[in-house]
Task: structure prediction
Amino acid sequence: MYAFTFEQPAALDEAQRLAAAGGKPLAGGQTLLASMKLRLSAPEQLVDLGRCKELSGIGLQNGELVIGAMTRHAEVAVNPQVREAYPALADLASRIGDRQVRAMGTLGGSVANNDPAACYPSAVLASGATIVTTQREIAADDFFLGLFATSLEEGELIKAIRFPLPRQAAYEKLRQKASHFPLVGVFVARFDDGVRVAVTGAGNGVFRHAGLEQALSQAFTAQAAGGVEIDASELNSDLHGTAAYRANLISVLAQRAVIKASR
Result:
């Protein structure tokens, strides 16, 4: 790594001040520290958010599940309120990466980083969640802008994420065995006013699939999902799989998610 200074503010106000002055926020560090070791990133100052108690915690407020940005994946996976109110989210958290990643990785860090193959962004987008920051509230549909890009401004920190509770939901993925990232992941969430479907790993960022949403809003069945043609023209092709393969995976995983959600 290149040389850098390391700050550990104990309060959110101080963390926000340091971030606004140019400090790089450090949440779980699962991506940032690896990129620094490879000298792909060279921040002059890291601002560790781990001591800011205001950024952690899980609770139900006004019919929504509210999870603090610094809440670890492992905590979400086993929390009784999450498992009761939103079991699909607990299931997703329990299968992120490996045990070490789940022990260190955070909800806010994953969402702010917006890795195109991360699991959490699909849950946030499919849920129609609200990202609460130090400056404002951002709807999930307006938050994710593409490859590692979000609508967060310089120095803006995620405080918490509010998840509306669906009637039914499930997440299915095909995991790359080497990296544990999903080759493709599909999160399906059924609400009173329709179904939202978010796909990760298949393109240059998480995205909603309008065709699957329309079909599943009319009939929440695996057959309805299987009848949707998945366009491969804008999907990724790489050494792990072609665009056509990823398109087929979207269909298969969406069908599995619907079956799982209906149990």
